[in-house]
Amino acid sequence: MKRSLTSLTDHYYVLIIASTFLQGSSFVSTKLVMEQMSPLWAASARFLVAAVSLSPFVFIQMRRHKISLKELPWVKLLIIGSFQTAGVMSLLNIGLTATSSSIAAILMASNPLLVVVLAWFILGERSSTFALFGLASAFIGVIICIGIDVDGYHGVGRGEVLVMLASTCWACSTVLSKKFAMTPSPWIVTFWQMLIGSLLLMVIAACSKQPFSLPTDAYHWGMFMWLAIPASTGAIGLWFAALKIGGSVHTSGFLFLCPLFAALVAFILIGQHPAWHEVIGGVLVGAGLFLMSRQRQPNQRQPKPATAKTSPPVRYPLT
């Protein structure tokens, strides 16, 4: 029994690390892709390709488990797709046209704190002072790690407001997926919410009258395909699976790893060296995650016996 508990913990952290690495890599690849594509069309094409790439596996899985289209929770999938894909990506990409990437990354990194607040009111989940201290430490670390532009004063303008709304959409999707407790597998939910979200993004892009274009060379096509499949299908599906094991508050705390992985990918691809403040910030992030993982361990042992006795009550959040 102890080995199975340990493997469950290891499996959970593997999912977290893989998903946050892929999410972090999307910052750099998105920046490169938008050199040749407009922001909204890049987002819509990204998730449409991601959904199409996942469709054969999903339909085989639905057929194997005898899940018909009529049985899917369409209203819940529409809500999650509207928040997770359409809401987050449209607001974030438009916001990035009016604010710097460093400011946007900091605001998006505040997502776990929003999840804590929303989970308290919507789900009744409570976080201990110990876990909240870890969240605060990690958030401060992200601010120090990314740094603020020193070219002048940055007030809260249109871009910042839009990015904060994008972060709020992300937090709402995380908490609502927990509340919905949808029974389909993470990959089925991933496919349908991405497809719905990409179609909504197409409508938004068309209404915004942004010019439609595609990458024109192999390098940018490669970045786009990485963004569409590993950094979208893989990242979101693994994130859903992690939420299925952990709680929404605890799992969302690990989003603080995304900026660290983004800095690592930027160093590898464009040779950007980490500065001293990034090293200090990384230490604070690591300390915060350590505090959160210490908080998680006692709680993680209790769902296991319940799973062994009866499987129906264990219905997990998928986001």
The multimeric state of the shown protein is single chain
Name the average pLDDT.
77
Gap from first CA to last CA: 29 Å
Q: Count up the helices.
A: 13
In angstroms, what is the radius of gyration?
Answer: 19 Å
Apparent shape = globular
Can you give the helix content as a percent range? Answer: over 70%
Task: Present the secondary structure layout.
Layout: H1 2-33, H2 39-64, H3 74-96, H4 101-109, H5 111-122, H6 129-146, H7 158-180, H8 186-208, H9 218-245, H10 248-252, H11 257-270, H12 276-300, H13 303-309
Helix pairs in contact: 1-9, 1-11, 2-3, 2-8, 2-9, 3-7, 3-8, 4-6, 4-7, 5-7, 6-12, 8-9
General description of the model:
With 319 residues, the chain is an all-alpha fold. It is built from 13 helices and no strands. Helix 4 packs antiparallel against helix 6.
